[in-house]
Specification:
about 375 residues, alpha/beta, Purple Acid Phosphatase, chain A, domain 2, nine-stranded mixed beta sheet, 20 strands, globular
Length: about 375
């Protein structure tokens, strides 16, 4: 059984203030991948420790409600199974401790093209391992969880329902005892109907879609986003292309909705530019005294994956806000690397159309209801 998560976070006020309003902030990160080089760097004797991957970025995620895309499985070892990276991922169970304790993840998406890398048995074991680590998940149907299901999680008084679908899978196991939520109009409609039945304040759609290494959404992404938003989702967040794609804010009849087409790789060993760069997306929702919830602000910070140990990867802040930099650790990185991070971050900020202003967390504003007519518009053709 999946748990109902209740999290208290520090409130932040960017655009408006009212005593009767309830505010909640959600953070989203992209693809969480573990390649062979990461496995080798994390291994010490018979144990593994992936915490160095997150030590530099951890302060930015403190006390946050965090959602990420798990693009690996926990299939265990034995019976010809071993830990491995691409193309058939299989990661040690201890990685869940790093995700929970070192990264602070609250929800993981499983509807992606690698969930069946080790068959339906691997997908089932992945669910058991996540639940043992008290990590919530969405994207599969099995046992008492129906296909195209949703999950509702409470964050500081705002109840968010999440749905998760993928364009497909690299592998399709012979056994169909595990249902993969796919991107199709009837499936999305059913998921959102299930989400509405959970009495949420807001519905968030998490889609695994698009063309790998393309910087713009394709027609299939646009169609799926339209389906989700028209059915009742307020925010759509995408993964899979392994590179960043723009953020779009839509305002129709005073209702604000948004699509982050792709967040890129949060952590991986894909070293070819611009697959090392990503962003952490923050969405603030506000519920008024009449119980109506709205999207109040979107903001982000640029990130970059450095490899100081050649095979070890570390997620690093790539912005230039001094208030943020003061609280982070850049020790062990060369001066040239630290200097280049600012240029990398600047390219990301221009690509996603971030504004010059920052919120109290040092995140750059993408859209804010205080200046609602200023929309994020890309100022570069790519994030590099």
């Amino acid at each position: 059984m999946r748990k109902l998560f209740v999290a208290g976070i520090i409130l932040w006020s960017l655009c408006v203030s009212a005593e009767a309003e309830v505010r909640a902030r959600f953070l989203f990160i992209g693809d969480i991948m573990v390649h062979d080089q990461q496995l080798e760097a994390a291994k010490s004797g018979d144990t593994y420790d992936f915490s160095p991957s997150f030590r530099r970025i951890k302060p930015l995620l403190k006390d946050a409600f965090l959602v990420g895309n798990l693009e690996t499985v926990f299939a265990g070892t034995g019976k010809k199974l071993r830990y491995a990276g691409f193309p058939f991922f299989n990661t040690p169970d201890v990685f869940t401790e790093n995700l929970s304790n070192d990264l602070g993840v609250d929800l993981l998406t499983l509807a992606n093209n690698h969930i069946f890398d080790r068959g339906s048995a691997g997908a089932r074991r992945t669910v058991r391992v996540l639940e043992s680590a008290d990590l919530s998940w969405v994207g599969l149907g099995l046992d008492d969880v129906p296909s195209n299901d949703a999950i509702a999680l409470d964050n500081n008084g705002i109840r968010a329902a999440f749905i998760n679908h993928t364009y497909g899978s690299n592998e399709w196991p012979k056994s169909r005892d595990v249902h993969l939520n796919v991107i199709a109009s009837p499936d999305i409609r059913q998921s959102i109907a299930r989400a509405k039945a959970l009495s949420p304040d807001v519905i968030i759609a998490l889609f695994h879609w698009g063309n790998e290494y393309h910087f713009r959404p394709n027609v299939h992404q646009k169609r799926a986003a339209d389906w989700a938003l028209s059915e009742g989702a307020t925010l759509v967040v995408g993964t899979h292309p392994h590179v960043l794609q723009p953020v779009e804010v839509r305002i129709v009849s005073d209702e604000v909705k948004a699509v982050a087409w792709s967040l890129g790789n949060f952590v991986s060993f894909q070293r070819t530019l611009p697959r090392e760069r990503s962003m952490i997306l923050a969405a603030e929702f506000v519920k008024n005294d009449e119980g109506v919830t709205r999207l109040a602000a979107l903001s982000m910070v640029p990130t970059y994956v450095v490899a100081p140990g050649r095979k070890r990867t570390e997620v690093t802040y790539a912005g230039s806000e001094e208030s943020v930099i003061a609280g982070l650790d850049f020790g062990g990185l060369s001066r040239s690397t630290v200097k280049s991070l600012r240029g990398i971050g600047r390219a990301v900020l221009e690509f996603v159309g971030a504004q010059g202003r920052v919120d109290e967390y040092g995140f750059r504003v993408l859209w804010c209801e205080e200046s609602g007519d200023v929309l994020p518009v890309s100022r570069r053709k790519s994030p590099r």
